[in-house]
Amino acid sequence: MTAMPPTTGHLQLVQFANLLGTDGVVLIICTQPFEPFPTERISSMQQALNHAGLNKVTIQHIDKPIEQDPTADGFWDMWRDILINYGVTTADYIVSSETYGKKLAEITGAQFFPYDIDRSINPVKATPIRDNPIAHFDEIIPEFRKYISTTVTIFGAESTGKTTLTRALAEKLDATWLFEYARPYLENTENVITTDSMTGIWKGQKALQEQADNVRKSAYILQDTDLFSTVGYWQFPHWQSRLGECPAELVEDALALKSDLYILTRSNIAFEPDPLRYGGDKREGSDEYWIDVLERYNLPYVVLEDSDMDERIEHAVTAIKEVAETRAKKLFYDRKGL
Question: Of 13, 70, 155, 200, which residue is most buried, by most CB within 10 angstroms?
Answer without folding.
Answer: 155
